Amino acid sequence: MRALVSSFMVSVVVCGTAMADGIEGKWKRGDGNALVRIAPCGDKVCATNLWIGDTSKGEAAGDRLVMSLTPGAAGSFSGTAYDAKRKLNYSIVLTPRKGGLTTRGCFVGKLICKDVSWTAAR
């Protein structure tokens, strides 16, 4: 989970194929240790690590999270994410905000969760 959630790798699928406004693009993790690109991949959306500063926790450029999300309350999106490298499924909530977004990834029946803040990368 640490690489997924801490690396973010979050993407959004709305009604199966349409990407939510302001989500597609490059995002920098709040701690400055990751840069990801969120873009469509097939009928889903993927978040792919473009750069990782500290690779000691197993994160690497090219790691990808494939997600299916649906619109939720107050502009958020929720659903599932799959990390093929670690063979793990997560529940994810993405909450867009001005100039950024927050992700919340959970596993083990939503008992273990982590929030991560992201800012738009230029």
Jot down its keywords.
8-stranded antiparallel barrel; mainly beta; 122 residues; globular; single chain; disordered N terminus
> How would you classify the helix and strand content by structural class?
mainly beta
Rg value: 13 Å
Strands across the major sheet, in which order?
A: 1-2-3-4-5-6-7-8
Q: What is the rounded distance between the termini? A: 27 Å
Order of helices and strands: HEEEEEEEE
Helix content: under 10%
Overall mean confidence score, pLDDT:
81
Unreliable parts:
1-18
Number of strands: 8
Question: Count of helices?
Answer: 1
Concise summary:
The chain has one helix and eight strands; from the N terminus they run H-E-E-E-E-E-E-E-E.
Q: Please, could you describe this protein's structure?
A:
The chain is mostly beta strands and 122 residues long. Helices cover 5% and strands 52% of the residues. The chain has one helix spanning 2-7; strands spanning 25-29, 34-41, 44-52, 64-71, 77-83, 88-97, 100-107, 112-120. An 8-stranded antiparallel β-barrel has the order 1-2-3-4-5-6-7-8. Strand 1 and strand 2 form a beta hairpin. The model is unreliable at 1-18 (pLDDT under 50).
